[in-house]
Amino acid sequence: MCGIAGFLSRADAKPEPGAARARLEAAAAALAHRGPDAAGVRWLHDHGLGLAHRRLSILDLETRSDQPLLSHDGRFLLCYNGEVYNYRALRAELRERGARFNTEGDSEVVIEGVRAWGVEGFLSRAAGMFAFALYDLTDRRLSLARDRAGKKPLYYAEGPWGLVFASELAALWRLEPSTRALDPEGLEAWLRLKFTPSPLTLCSGVKKLPPAHWLELRDGKASVQRRYWSPLGRARPAGELVDLVDAALCTAAERRLVSDVPVCLFLSGGVDSSLVADTLGQAGQGLKAYCVGYEDLPAYNEFAYAKLAAERVGMAYAEVTLPSRQALSVLQDDSLVLDDPVSDWVWVPLHELSRRARADGFKVALVGEGSDEVFFGYDVMLKGLRQLERWQKPGWRALAKAGSAALAPVYRRAGRGHARYDLWRRAAAGEPVYQGSSSGFPRSQRDQVAGPRLKAAAPPDAAAAFVGRLYREYAEGAAVPSDLAGLVSYIEFNSKMTEVLLQRVDRVTMRHSLEARAPFLDHELVELAFSIPEAQKIPGRRLKSLLKEVARRRLPAEVVDRPKMGFSFPFKEWLRGPLAPAVADSFTGSRLFSDGWVEGSVARRLLAQHRRGLVDHAPRVWALYSLARWYDRWIAGPAR
Question: Are residues 609 and 514 part of one domain?
Protein backbone atom coordinates (compact mmCIF):
# COMPACT_ATOMS: atom_id res chain seq x y z
CA MET A 1 0.00 0.00 0.00
CA CYS A 2 1.46 3.29 -1.05
CA GLY A 3 1.02 6.87 -2.17
CA ILE A 4 1.22 7.96 -5.80
CA ALA A 5 1.42 11.30 -7.61
CA GLY A 6 2.42 12.61 -11.00
CA PHE A 7 1.54 14.56 -14.11
CA LEU A 8 1.37 14.29 -17.88
CA SER A 9 2.20 17.61 -19.49
CA ARG A 10 1.05 18.89 -22.83
CA ALA A 11 3.55 18.90 -25.69
CA ASP A 12 3.59 22.70 -25.75
CA ALA A 13 3.92 23.12 -21.96
CA LYS A 14 6.63 20.77 -20.75
CA PRO A 15 8.16 22.09 -17.52
CA GLU A 16 11.84 22.67 -17.03
CA PRO A 17 13.42 19.44 -15.64
CA GLY A 18 14.55 21.00 -12.38
CA ALA A 19 11.11 22.44 -11.65
CA ALA A 20 9.41 19.19 -12.58
CA ARG A 21 11.60 17.10 -10.29
CA ALA A 22 11.25 19.58 -7.43
CA ARG A 23 7.46 19.40 -7.57
CA LEU A 24 7.48 15.61 -7.81
CA GLU A 25 9.77 15.32 -4.80
CA ALA A 26 7.56 17.72 -2.84
CA ALA A 27 4.50 15.62 -3.71
CA ALA A 28 6.28 12.46 -2.62
CA ALA A 29 7.24 14.11 0.68
CA ALA A 30 3.59 15.01 1.30
CA LEU A 31 2.75 11.29 0.94
CA ALA A 32 5.54 9.98 3.17
CA HIS A 33 3.10 8.67 5.79
CA ARG A 34 1.46 6.45 3.14
CA GLY A 35 4.79 4.81 2.31
CA PRO A 36 7.72 5.20 4.70
CA ASP A 37 9.71 2.24 3.34
CA ALA A 38 10.90 3.63 -0.01
CA ALA A 39 10.57 6.67 -2.27
CA GLY A 40 10.98 7.05 -6.01
CA VAL A 41 10.68 9.81 -8.62
CA ARG A 42 10.86 9.50 -12.42
CA TRP A 43 10.80 12.39 -14.90
CA LEU A 44 10.72 11.58 -18.64
CA HIS A 45 11.16 14.94 -20.33
CA ASP A 46 10.58 13.65 -23.87
CA HIS A 47 7.19 12.28 -22.82
CA GLY A 48 6.29 15.10 -20.44
CA LEU A 49 5.67 12.45 -17.77
CA GLY A 50 6.49 12.71 -14.09
CA LEU A 51 5.76 10.04 -11.46
CA ALA A 52 6.33 10.05 -7.70
CA HIS A 53 5.89 7.09 -5.36
CA ARG A 54 6.06 6.30 -1.66
CA ARG A 55 6.10 2.61 -0.75
CA LEU A 56 4.68 0.68 2.19
CA SER A 57 6.28 -2.72 1.62
CA ILE A 58 3.77 -5.55 2.08
CA LEU A 59 4.34 -7.91 -0.86
CA ASP A 60 7.86 -8.77 -2.08
CA LEU A 61 9.81 -6.69 0.41
CA GLU A 62 12.91 -6.51 -1.81
CA THR A 63 14.02 -3.27 -3.47
CA ARG A 64 13.34 -4.84 -6.89
CA SER A 65 9.66 -4.03 -6.30
CA ASP A 66 10.24 -0.35 -5.52
CA GLN A 67 8.43 2.10 -7.78
CA PRO A 68 7.94 3.70 -10.23
CA LEU A 69 8.45 0.26 -11.79
CA LEU A 70 9.59 -0.18 -15.39
CA SER A 71 8.54 -3.32 -17.27
CA HIS A 72 11.25 -5.77 -18.32
CA ASP A 73 11.11 -4.53 -21.94
CA GLY A 74 11.01 -0.84 -21.05
CA ARG A 75 7.54 -0.25 -22.53
CA PHE A 76 5.43 0.34 -19.38
CA LEU A 77 6.06 2.46 -16.31
CA LEU A 78 3.85 1.84 -13.26
CA CYS A 79 3.03 3.94 -10.19
CA TYR A 80 0.72 1.80 -8.06
CA ASN A 81 -1.10 2.01 -4.73
CA GLY A 82 -2.87 -1.11 -3.59
CA GLU A 83 -3.07 -4.87 -3.52
CA VAL A 84 -4.35 -7.38 -6.07
CA TYR A 85 -5.24 -10.27 -3.79
CA ASN A 86 -5.50 -12.85 -6.58
CA TYR A 87 -2.20 -11.83 -8.15
CA ARG A 88 -0.68 -15.31 -7.84
CA ALA A 89 -3.45 -16.89 -9.91
CA LEU A 90 -3.22 -14.07 -12.47
CA ARG A 91 0.56 -14.40 -12.62
CA ALA A 92 0.27 -18.14 -13.30
CA GLU A 93 -2.21 -17.48 -16.09
CA LEU A 94 0.03 -14.78 -17.58
CA ARG A 95 3.08 -17.05 -17.45
CA GLU A 96 1.19 -19.59 -19.50
CA ARG A 97 0.74 -16.82 -22.07
CA GLY A 98 4.51 -16.19 -22.10
CA ALA A 99 4.81 -13.27 -19.67
CA ARG A 100 8.12 -12.71 -17.86
CA PHE A 101 8.44 -11.65 -14.22
CA ASN A 102 11.44 -10.29 -12.35
CA THR A 103 9.70 -9.76 -8.97
CA GLU A 104 7.50 -11.77 -6.59
CA GLY A 105 4.86 -9.11 -5.85
CA ASP A 106 1.69 -7.95 -7.55
CA SER A 107 3.00 -4.78 -9.25
CA GLU A 108 4.38 -6.62 -12.28
CA VAL A 109 1.08 -8.50 -12.53
CA VAL A 110 -0.64 -5.15 -13.09
CA ILE A 111 1.79 -4.33 -15.90
CA GLU A 112 1.66 -7.71 -17.61
CA GLY A 113 -2.09 -8.01 -17.08
CA VAL A 114 -2.69 -4.76 -18.92
CA ARG A 115 -0.26 -5.83 -21.66
CA ALA A 116 -2.14 -9.12 -22.14
CA TRP A 117 -5.76 -8.10 -21.64
CA GLY A 118 -5.87 -4.31 -21.90
CA VAL A 119 -6.77 -1.98 -19.05
CA GLU A 120 -10.41 -3.00 -18.80
CA GLY A 121 -9.65 -6.68 -19.30
CA PHE A 122 -7.18 -6.64 -16.43
CA LEU A 123 -9.49 -4.64 -14.16
CA SER A 124 -12.31 -7.13 -14.72
CA ARG A 125 -10.03 -9.95 -13.51
CA ALA A 126 -8.34 -8.22 -10.56
CA ALA A 127 -9.71 -8.81 -7.06
CA GLY A 128 -8.38 -6.12 -4.79
CA MET A 129 -8.16 -2.47 -3.85
CA PHE A 130 -6.00 -0.09 -5.78
CA ALA A 131 -5.37 3.15 -7.58
CA PHE A 132 -2.68 3.19 -10.23
CA ALA A 133 -1.08 5.16 -13.03
CA LEU A 134 0.33 3.11 -15.91
CA TYR A 135 2.16 4.80 -18.77
CA ASP A 136 2.67 3.15 -22.15
CA LEU A 137 5.87 4.65 -23.60
CA THR A 138 5.13 3.20 -27.04
CA ASP A 139 1.59 4.59 -27.40
CA ARG A 140 2.35 7.63 -25.18
CA ARG A 141 -0.80 6.91 -23.19
CA LEU A 142 -1.37 7.25 -19.43
CA SER A 143 -4.10 5.17 -17.77
CA LEU A 144 -5.45 5.98 -14.31
CA ALA A 145 -7.67 3.46 -12.54
CA ARG A 146 -9.48 3.03 -9.23
CA ASP A 147 -10.85 -0.11 -7.55
CA ARG A 148 -14.49 -1.16 -7.68
CA ALA A 149 -15.65 0.06 -4.26
CA GLY A 150 -13.39 3.12 -4.11
CA LYS A 151 -11.23 1.94 -1.22
CA LYS A 152 -8.18 3.77 -2.56
CA PRO A 153 -8.47 7.49 -3.46
CA LEU A 154 -7.25 9.22 -6.62
CA TYR A 155 -7.56 12.97 -7.28
CA TYR A 156 -6.73 14.75 -10.54
CA ALA A 157 -6.85 18.22 -12.05
CA GLU A 158 -5.84 20.09 -15.18
CA GLY A 159 -3.23 22.80 -14.73
CA PRO A 160 -0.91 24.98 -16.83
CA TRP A 161 1.45 22.06 -17.48
CA GLY A 162 -1.21 19.45 -18.15
CA LEU A 163 -3.00 16.91 -15.96
CA VAL A 164 -1.80 16.23 -12.41
CA PHE A 165 -2.91 13.42 -10.08
CA ALA A 166 -2.25 12.20 -6.54
CA SER A 167 -3.50 9.95 -3.75
CA GLU A 168 -4.17 12.96 -1.53
CA LEU A 169 -4.99 16.62 -2.04
CA ALA A 170 -1.93 17.75 -0.07
CA ALA A 171 0.29 16.10 -2.68
CA LEU A 172 -1.78 17.38 -5.59
CA TRP A 173 -1.40 20.94 -4.28
CA ARG A 174 2.39 20.50 -4.39
CA LEU A 175 2.08 19.72 -8.10
CA GLU A 176 -0.50 22.39 -8.90
CA PRO A 177 -0.90 25.05 -6.16
CA SER A 178 -3.68 26.90 -8.02
CA THR A 179 -6.14 24.12 -7.12
CA ARG A 180 -5.95 25.02 -3.42
CA ALA A 181 -9.16 27.04 -3.50
CA LEU A 182 -12.72 26.34 -2.37
CA ASP A 183 -15.20 25.22 -5.03
CA PRO A 184 -18.76 26.55 -4.46
CA GLU A 185 -20.39 23.56 -6.14
CA GLY A 186 -18.44 21.16 -3.96
CA LEU A 187 -19.30 23.14 -0.82
CA GLU A 188 -22.99 23.18 -1.73
CA ALA A 189 -22.99 19.39 -2.11
CA TRP A 190 -20.97 18.88 1.08
CA LEU A 191 -23.41 20.92 3.16
CA ARG A 192 -26.29 18.84 1.79
CA LEU A 193 -24.73 15.36 1.93
CA LYS A 194 -21.76 15.78 4.30
CA PHE A 195 -19.52 14.63 1.44
CA THR A 196 -18.73 15.63 -2.13
CA PRO A 197 -19.94 12.95 -4.57
CA SER A 198 -17.38 11.79 -7.13
CA PRO A 199 -16.13 13.24 -9.38
CA LEU A 200 -16.70 16.43 -7.39
CA THR A 201 -14.39 17.70 -4.61
CA LEU A 202 -14.28 20.72 -2.32
CA CYS A 203 -11.44 22.22 -4.37
CA SER A 204 -11.73 24.27 -7.51
CA GLY A 205 -10.82 22.31 -10.62
CA VAL A 206 -10.02 19.10 -8.73
CA LYS A 207 -11.89 15.87 -9.42
CA LYS A 208 -11.97 12.42 -7.86
CA LEU A 209 -11.81 9.48 -10.22
CA PRO A 210 -15.07 7.66 -9.36
CA PRO A 211 -14.91 4.12 -8.02
CA ALA A 212 -14.86 1.36 -10.67
CA HIS A 213 -13.66 3.81 -13.34
CA TRP A 214 -10.51 4.19 -15.39
CA LEU A 215 -9.32 7.24 -17.27
CA GLU A 216 -7.10 7.46 -20.35
CA LEU A 217 -4.93 10.50 -21.01
CA ARG A 218 -2.96 11.68 -23.99
CA ASP A 219 -0.96 14.90 -24.41
CA GLY A 220 -1.79 16.04 -20.89
CA LYS A 221 -5.56 15.85 -21.32
CA ALA A 222 -8.25 13.35 -20.36
CA SER A 223 -9.52 11.58 -23.46
CA VAL A 224 -11.62 8.60 -22.35
CA GLN A 225 -13.26 7.71 -19.00
CA ARG A 226 -15.13 4.46 -18.56
CA ARG A 227 -16.88 2.54 -15.81
CA TYR A 228 -15.79 -1.09 -15.75
CA TRP A 229 -17.96 -2.62 -12.97
CA SER A 230 -21.34 -2.46 -11.29
CA PRO A 231 -22.69 -4.77 -8.56
CA LEU A 232 -26.10 -4.78 -10.25
CA GLY A 233 -27.70 -7.09 -12.78
CA ARG A 234 -26.79 -10.56 -11.52
CA ALA A 235 -29.55 -13.13 -11.30
CA ARG A 236 -30.19 -14.81 -7.96
CA PRO A 237 -27.75 -17.74 -7.80
CA ALA A 238 -28.87 -21.33 -7.48
CA GLY A 239 -28.24 -23.02 -4.16
CA GLU A 240 -28.75 -22.48 -0.45
CA LEU A 241 -28.13 -18.79 0.20
CA VAL A 242 -26.64 -19.28 3.66
CA ASP A 243 -24.09 -21.67 2.16
CA LEU A 244 -23.31 -19.30 -0.71
CA VAL A 245 -22.78 -16.28 1.53
CA ASP A 246 -20.74 -18.33 4.00
CA ALA A 247 -18.44 -19.60 1.24
CA ALA A 248 -18.08 -16.17 -0.36
CA LEU A 249 -17.17 -14.59 2.98
CA CYS A 250 -14.54 -17.25 3.64
CA THR A 251 -13.00 -16.61 0.22
CA ALA A 252 -13.07 -12.85 0.78
CA ALA A 253 -11.39 -13.05 4.19
CA GLU A 254 -8.73 -15.55 3.11
CA ARG A 255 -7.88 -13.43 0.06
CA ARG A 256 -7.04 -10.55 2.37
CA LEU A 257 -4.42 -12.55 4.21
CA VAL A 258 -2.08 -12.35 1.20
CA SER A 259 0.90 -10.59 2.75
CA ASP A 260 4.62 -10.91 3.45
CA VAL A 261 4.17 -9.00 6.75
CA PRO A 262 1.99 -9.69 9.83
CA VAL A 263 -1.77 -9.01 9.68
CA CYS A 264 -4.09 -7.93 12.51
CA LEU A 265 -7.84 -7.46 12.91
CA PHE A 266 -9.89 -4.56 14.26
CA LEU A 267 -12.57 -6.33 16.29
CA SER A 268 -15.64 -4.54 17.64
CA GLY A 269 -17.42 -7.56 19.09
CA GLY A 270 -20.33 -7.16 16.67
CA VAL A 271 -21.50 -9.68 14.09
CA ASP A 272 -19.38 -8.40 11.18
CA SER A 273 -15.88 -8.35 12.65
CA SER A 274 -16.63 -11.41 14.81
CA LEU A 275 -17.52 -13.35 11.66
CA VAL A 276 -14.23 -12.32 10.09
CA ALA A 277 -12.38 -13.36 13.26
CA ASP A 278 -14.06 -16.75 13.24
CA THR A 279 -13.36 -17.27 9.54
CA LEU A 280 -9.68 -16.57 10.00
CA GLY A 281 -9.50 -18.62 13.17
CA GLN A 282 -11.06 -21.61 11.44
CA ALA A 283 -8.46 -21.25 8.70
CA GLY A 284 -5.75 -21.58 11.34
CA GLN A 285 -4.46 -18.04 11.11
CA GLY A 286 -2.76 -16.79 14.28
CA LEU A 287 -3.67 -13.13 14.05
CA LYS A 288 -4.00 -10.49 16.73
CA ALA A 289 -7.24 -8.59 17.39
CA TYR A 290 -7.61 -5.04 18.70
CA CYS A 291 -10.71 -3.48 20.25
CA VAL A 292 -11.17 0.14 21.37
CA GLY A 293 -13.25 1.47 24.26
CA TYR A 294 -13.57 4.32 26.75
CA GLU A 295 -12.58 3.94 30.38
CA ASP A 296 -15.09 6.50 31.68
CA LEU A 297 -17.97 5.69 29.30
CA PRO A 298 -18.71 1.96 29.66
CA ALA A 299 -21.90 2.23 27.61
CA TYR A 300 -19.70 2.63 24.52
CA ASN A 301 -17.49 -0.38 25.28
CA GLU A 302 -17.71 -3.77 23.54
CA PHE A 303 -14.67 -5.31 25.19
CA ALA A 304 -16.48 -8.35 26.62
CA TYR A 305 -17.94 -9.38 23.26
CA ALA A 306 -14.71 -8.75 21.33
CA LYS A 307 -12.74 -10.79 23.84
CA LEU A 308 -15.26 -13.62 23.57
CA ALA A 309 -14.97 -13.67 19.75
CA ALA A 310 -11.17 -13.65 19.86
CA GLU A 311 -10.76 -16.27 22.55
CA ARG A 312 -13.14 -18.70 20.81
CA VAL A 313 -10.68 -19.06 17.94
CA GLY A 314 -7.48 -18.69 19.95
CA MET A 315 -6.68 -15.25 18.60
CA ALA A 316 -4.42 -12.93 20.58
CA TYR A 317 -6.43 -9.98 21.88
CA ALA A 318 -5.59 -6.45 23.00
CA GLU A 319 -7.77 -3.63 24.34
CA VAL A 320 -7.10 -0.01 23.46
CA THR A 321 -8.60 2.14 26.19
CA LEU A 322 -9.21 5.75 25.22
CA PRO A 323 -9.58 8.24 28.11
CA SER A 324 -11.81 11.23 27.46
CA ARG A 325 -8.92 13.64 27.95
CA GLN A 326 -6.84 11.90 25.29
CA ALA A 327 -9.75 11.73 22.84
CA LEU A 328 -10.40 15.44 23.29
CA SER A 329 -6.76 16.25 22.61
CA VAL A 330 -6.91 14.22 19.40
CA LEU A 331 -10.05 16.06 18.30
CA GLN A 332 -8.37 19.43 18.81
CA ASP A 333 -4.96 18.56 17.32
CA ASP A 334 -4.56 20.78 14.25
CA SER A 335 -1.90 18.48 12.81
CA LEU A 336 -4.55 15.76 12.48
CA VAL A 337 -6.92 17.88 10.35
CA LEU A 338 -7.07 15.97 7.05
CA ASP A 339 -6.73 17.75 3.71
CA ASP A 340 -10.18 16.42 2.71
CA PRO A 341 -12.59 16.66 5.66
CA VAL A 342 -14.32 13.57 7.04
CA SER A 343 -17.84 14.12 8.33
CA ASP A 344 -17.77 11.05 10.57
CA TRP A 345 -16.34 11.52 14.07
CA VAL A 346 -15.53 7.82 14.47
CA TRP A 347 -12.14 8.60 12.95
CA VAL A 348 -10.94 9.30 16.50
CA PRO A 349 -11.14 5.71 17.84
CA LEU A 350 -9.91 4.45 14.46
CA HIS A 351 -6.92 6.76 14.84
CA GLU A 352 -6.11 5.24 18.24
CA LEU A 353 -6.52 1.65 16.99
CA SER A 354 -4.27 2.36 14.01
CA ARG A 355 -1.62 4.03 16.14
CA ARG A 356 -1.51 1.07 18.54
CA ALA A 357 -1.44 -1.58 15.81
CA ARG A 358 1.37 0.18 13.95
CA ALA A 359 3.34 0.63 17.17
CA ASP A 360 3.07 -3.13 17.68
CA GLY A 361 4.66 -3.71 14.27
CA PHE A 362 1.63 -4.40 12.05
CA LYS A 363 1.31 -3.01 8.54
CA VAL A 364 -2.04 -4.63 7.61
CA ALA A 365 -5.37 -4.60 9.46
CA LEU A 366 -8.67 -6.23 8.51
CA VAL A 367 -11.81 -4.13 9.10
CA GLY A 368 -15.56 -4.77 8.94
CA GLU A 369 -16.73 -1.95 6.64
CA GLY A 370 -19.38 -2.72 4.02
CA SER A 371 -21.53 -5.43 5.55
CA ASP A 372 -24.36 -3.15 6.71
CA GLU A 373 -24.69 -1.50 3.31
CA VAL A 374 -24.82 -4.70 1.24
CA PHE A 375 -26.67 -6.90 3.75
CA PHE A 376 -29.13 -4.22 4.93
CA GLY A 377 -28.05 -3.60 8.50
CA TYR A 378 -29.04 -0.03 9.45
CA ASP A 379 -32.30 1.15 11.00
CA VAL A 380 -32.18 4.19 8.72
CA MET A 381 -32.24 1.88 5.70
CA LEU A 382 -35.44 0.25 6.90
CA LYS A 383 -36.90 3.71 7.48
CA GLY A 384 -35.92 4.67 3.94
CA LEU A 385 -37.56 1.55 2.53
CA ARG A 386 -40.81 2.46 4.23
CA GLN A 387 -40.57 6.01 2.89
CA LEU A 388 -40.18 4.75 -0.66
CA GLU A 389 -43.21 2.50 -0.32
CA ARG A 390 -45.37 5.16 1.32
CA TRP A 391 -44.62 8.11 -0.90
CA GLN A 392 -45.02 6.35 -4.21
CA LYS A 393 -48.73 5.84 -3.44
CA PRO A 394 -51.01 8.41 -5.17
CA GLY A 395 -52.87 9.39 -2.01
CA TRP A 396 -49.70 10.14 -0.09
CA ARG A 397 -48.26 12.10 -3.00
CA ALA A 398 -51.36 14.33 -3.07
CA LEU A 399 -51.08 14.84 0.67
CA ALA A 400 -47.43 15.79 0.29
CA LYS A 401 -48.26 18.38 -2.36
CA ALA A 402 -50.87 20.04 -0.18
CA GLY A 403 -48.80 19.90 2.99
CA SER A 404 -45.54 21.17 1.48
CA ALA A 405 -47.29 24.07 -0.26
CA ALA A 406 -48.98 25.15 2.98
CA LEU A 407 -45.81 24.88 5.05
CA ALA A 408 -43.36 26.47 2.57
CA PRO A 409 -43.69 30.00 4.05
CA VAL A 410 -43.14 28.66 7.56
CA TYR A 411 -39.97 26.76 6.71
CA ARG A 412 -38.32 29.72 5.05
CA ARG A 413 -37.79 30.98 8.60
CA ALA A 414 -37.99 27.85 10.79
CA GLY A 415 -34.78 26.67 12.42
CA ARG A 416 -35.83 23.05 13.01
CA GLY A 417 -37.85 20.29 11.41
CA HIS A 418 -36.45 20.71 7.91
CA ALA A 419 -35.57 17.03 7.40
CA ARG A 420 -39.23 15.99 7.62
CA TYR A 421 -40.48 18.97 5.66
CA ASP A 422 -37.93 18.39 2.88
CA LEU A 423 -39.10 14.79 2.62
CA TRP A 424 -42.63 16.09 1.96
CA ARG A 425 -41.25 18.60 -0.53
CA ARG A 426 -39.35 15.90 -2.45
CA ALA A 427 -42.36 13.60 -2.51
CA ALA A 428 -44.57 16.41 -3.78
CA ALA A 429 -42.09 17.33 -6.52
CA GLY A 430 -41.57 13.73 -7.65
CA GLU A 431 -37.89 13.83 -6.65
CA PRO A 432 -36.04 10.82 -5.20
CA VAL A 433 -37.44 10.35 -1.71
CA TYR A 434 -34.65 8.42 -0.01
CA GLN A 435 -31.41 10.38 -0.15
CA GLY A 436 -29.20 8.08 1.93
CA SER A 437 -28.16 8.12 5.59
CA SER A 438 -25.48 10.77 5.15
CA SER A 439 -27.51 13.96 5.20
CA GLY A 440 -26.67 17.48 6.25
CA PHE A 441 -28.82 20.53 5.66
CA PRO A 442 -31.88 19.98 3.44
CA ARG A 443 -32.54 22.20 0.43
CA SER A 444 -35.33 23.99 2.32
CA GLN A 445 -32.71 25.22 4.82
CA ARG A 446 -30.17 26.24 2.21
CA ASP A 447 -30.84 29.98 2.34
CA GLN A 448 -30.34 29.97 6.12
CA VAL A 449 -27.06 28.03 6.04
CA ALA A 450 -25.36 29.45 2.94
CA GLY A 451 -23.30 32.58 3.50
CA PRO A 452 -23.48 35.57 1.14
CA ARG A 453 -20.53 34.38 -0.92
CA LEU A 454 -22.04 30.96 -1.54
CA LYS A 455 -25.43 32.49 -2.35
CA ALA A 456 -23.81 34.83 -4.87
CA ALA A 457 -22.03 31.91 -6.56
CA ALA A 458 -25.37 30.10 -7.11
CA PRO A 459 -23.73 26.75 -7.92
CA PRO A 460 -25.62 23.84 -9.52
CA ASP A 461 -27.37 21.38 -7.22
CA ALA A 462 -24.80 18.59 -7.48
CA ALA A 463 -26.30 16.68 -4.56
CA ALA A 464 -29.66 16.28 -6.29
CA ALA A 465 -27.94 15.33 -9.54
CA PHE A 466 -25.89 12.68 -7.76
CA VAL A 467 -28.85 11.05 -6.02
CA GLY A 468 -30.90 11.19 -9.22
CA ARG A 469 -28.10 9.42 -11.09
CA LEU A 470 -28.07 6.59 -8.53
CA TYR A 471 -31.82 6.08 -9.00
CA ARG A 472 -31.39 5.94 -12.79
CA GLU A 473 -28.49 3.49 -12.56
CA TYR A 474 -30.54 1.19 -10.36
CA ALA A 475 -33.59 1.39 -12.61
CA GLU A 476 -31.48 0.58 -15.67
CA GLY A 477 -29.09 -1.98 -14.15
CA ALA A 478 -30.88 -3.94 -11.43
CA ALA A 479 -32.11 -7.43 -12.24
CA VAL A 480 -35.37 -6.55 -10.44
CA PRO A 481 -35.76 -2.74 -10.39
CA SER A 482 -38.93 -3.00 -8.30
CA ASP A 483 -36.92 -4.41 -5.36
CA LEU A 484 -36.79 -1.24 -3.26
CA ALA A 485 -34.55 -2.78 -0.60
CA GLY A 486 -31.92 -3.21 -3.30
CA LEU A 487 -32.31 0.45 -4.24
CA VAL A 488 -31.75 1.52 -0.64
CA SER A 489 -28.61 -0.64 -0.45
CA TYR A 490 -27.35 0.74 -3.75
CA ILE A 491 -27.71 4.31 -2.51
CA GLU A 492 -25.89 3.53 0.75
CA PHE A 493 -23.15 1.61 -1.04
CA ASN A 494 -22.41 4.52 -3.38
CA SER A 495 -22.89 7.38 -0.94
CA LYS A 496 -22.02 7.13 2.74
CA MET A 497 -19.96 3.97 2.45
CA THR A 498 -17.81 4.99 -0.51
CA GLU A 499 -17.59 8.73 0.06
CA VAL A 500 -17.45 8.86 3.88
CA LEU A 501 -16.61 5.56 5.56
CA LEU A 502 -14.01 4.30 3.11
CA GLN A 503 -12.40 7.72 2.91
CA ARG A 504 -12.21 7.71 6.71
CA VAL A 505 -10.67 4.24 6.82
CA ASP A 506 -8.07 4.94 4.14
CA ARG A 507 -6.97 8.34 5.34
CA VAL A 508 -6.80 7.52 9.06
CA THR A 509 -5.09 4.13 8.78
CA MET A 510 -2.63 5.33 6.14
CA ARG A 511 -1.71 8.26 8.33
CA HIS A 512 -0.11 5.59 10.49
CA SER A 513 1.34 3.66 7.52
CA LEU A 514 -1.22 0.91 8.05
CA GLU A 515 -3.15 -0.78 5.25
CA ALA A 516 -6.83 -1.57 5.94
CA ARG A 517 -8.53 -4.43 4.11
CA ALA A 518 -12.32 -4.94 4.07
CA PRO A 519 -13.46 -8.54 3.40
CA PHE A 520 -17.14 -7.55 3.12
CA LEU A 521 -16.25 -5.39 0.11
CA ASP A 522 -14.86 -8.26 -1.92
CA HIS A 523 -16.50 -7.68 -5.30
CA GLU A 524 -17.79 -11.26 -5.62
CA LEU A 525 -19.42 -11.10 -2.18
CA VAL A 526 -20.94 -7.70 -3.04
CA GLU A 527 -22.30 -9.02 -6.35
CA LEU A 528 -23.84 -11.97 -4.53
CA ALA A 529 -25.45 -9.70 -1.93
CA PHE A 530 -26.99 -7.44 -4.57
CA SER A 531 -28.43 -10.46 -6.41
CA ILE A 532 -30.46 -11.54 -3.37
CA PRO A 533 -34.01 -10.09 -3.21
CA GLU A 534 -35.46 -8.44 -0.13
CA ALA A 535 -37.63 -11.39 0.89
CA GLN A 536 -34.55 -13.59 1.28
CA LYS A 537 -32.04 -11.02 2.47
CA ILE A 538 -34.20 -9.51 5.24
CA PRO A 539 -37.19 -11.87 5.71
CA GLY A 540 -39.77 -10.27 7.94
CA ARG A 541 -37.69 -7.10 7.51
CA ARG A 542 -35.29 -8.22 10.20
CA LEU A 543 -32.12 -6.26 9.66
CA LYS A 544 -29.15 -8.23 8.30
CA SER A 545 -31.15 -11.41 8.75
CA LEU A 546 -29.36 -13.50 6.11
CA LEU A 547 -25.90 -12.59 7.37
CA LYS A 548 -26.98 -13.38 10.92
CA GLU A 549 -28.03 -16.85 9.76
CA VAL A 550 -24.47 -17.33 8.58
CA ALA A 551 -23.23 -16.03 11.93
CA ARG A 552 -25.43 -18.43 13.91
CA ARG A 553 -23.48 -21.30 12.42
CA ARG A 554 -20.31 -20.01 14.01
CA LEU A 555 -20.90 -17.45 16.77
CA PRO A 556 -22.57 -17.56 20.20
CA ALA A 557 -26.14 -16.28 20.41
CA GLU A 558 -25.09 -13.47 22.76
CA VAL A 559 -22.98 -12.02 19.94
CA VAL A 560 -25.47 -12.57 17.10
CA ASP A 561 -28.68 -11.47 18.85
CA ARG A 562 -27.54 -8.56 21.00
CA PRO A 563 -28.60 -5.02 19.98
CA LYS A 564 -26.36 -3.36 17.41
CA MET A 565 -23.94 -0.83 18.87
CA GLY A 566 -21.82 0.11 15.90
CA PHE A 567 -18.34 1.60 15.98
CA SER A 568 -19.33 4.67 17.95
CA PHE A 569 -17.86 7.62 19.79
CA PRO A 570 -19.35 9.90 22.52
CA PHE A 571 -19.04 13.17 20.61
CA LYS A 572 -22.60 14.30 21.34
CA GLU A 573 -22.07 13.90 25.10
CA TRP A 574 -18.74 15.76 25.07
CA LEU A 575 -20.30 18.50 22.96
CA ARG A 576 -22.43 19.33 26.00
CA GLY A 577 -19.32 19.32 28.17
CA PRO A 578 -15.55 19.63 27.69
CA LEU A 579 -15.51 19.95 23.90
CA ALA A 580 -18.08 22.74 23.69
CA PRO A 581 -15.66 25.68 24.26
CA ALA A 582 -13.34 24.60 21.44
CA VAL A 583 -16.25 24.22 19.01
CA ALA A 584 -17.68 27.58 20.11
CA ASP A 585 -14.32 29.26 19.47
CA SER A 586 -14.20 27.74 15.99
CA PHE A 587 -17.72 28.92 15.19
CA THR A 588 -16.74 32.43 16.27
CA GLY A 589 -13.29 32.69 14.68
CA SER A 590 -13.23 30.46 11.62
CA ARG A 591 -12.75 32.12 8.27
CA LEU A 592 -15.28 29.71 6.77
CA PHE A 593 -17.87 32.04 8.28
CA SER A 594 -16.09 35.40 8.08
CA ASP A 595 -15.21 34.77 4.42
CA GLY A 596 -18.93 34.46 3.71
CA TRP A 597 -19.18 30.80 2.71
CA VAL A 598 -21.38 29.59 5.58
CA GLU A 599 -23.65 31.55 7.92
CA GLY A 600 -21.93 31.51 11.31
CA SER A 601 -25.05 32.43 13.27
CA VAL A 602 -26.66 29.13 12.23
CA ALA A 603 -23.66 27.15 13.48
CA ARG A 604 -23.67 28.98 16.80
CA ARG A 605 -27.42 28.49 17.22
CA LEU A 606 -27.14 24.73 16.61
CA LEU A 607 -24.36 24.46 19.18
CA ALA A 608 -26.31 26.48 21.77
CA GLN A 609 -29.45 24.35 21.34
CA HIS A 610 -27.43 21.16 21.62
CA ARG A 611 -25.61 22.32 24.77
CA ARG A 612 -28.95 23.11 26.43
CA GLY A 613 -30.24 19.63 25.59
CA LEU A 614 -33.09 20.93 23.43
CA VAL A 615 -32.23 18.71 20.44
CA ASP A 616 -29.41 16.43 19.29
CA HIS A 617 -27.59 18.55 16.71
CA ALA A 618 -24.30 16.65 17.10
CA PRO A 619 -24.04 15.34 13.50
CA ARG A 620 -24.54 18.79 11.95
CA VAL A 621 -22.37 20.54 14.51
CA TRP A 622 -19.60 18.04 13.83
CA ALA A 623 -19.97 18.53 10.07
CA LEU A 624 -19.59 22.30 10.38
CA TYR A 625 -16.78 21.99 12.94
CA SER A 626 -14.74 19.62 10.77
CA LEU A 627 -15.40 21.75 7.68
CA ALA A 628 -14.36 24.95 9.47
CA ARG A 629 -11.15 23.44 10.79
CA TRP A 630 -10.30 22.07 7.33
CA TYR A 631 -10.92 25.44 5.69
CA ASP A 632 -8.80 27.31 8.23
CA ARG A 633 -5.84 24.95 7.96
CA TRP A 634 -5.78 24.06 4.28
CA ILE A 635 -7.57 26.80 2.34
CA ALA A 636 -7.57 30.11 4.22
CA GLY A 637 -4.52 29.76 6.43
CA PRO A 638 -4.51 30.99 10.04
CA ALA A 639 -7.82 32.30 11.35
CA ARG A 640 -8.22 36.05 11.65
Answer: no
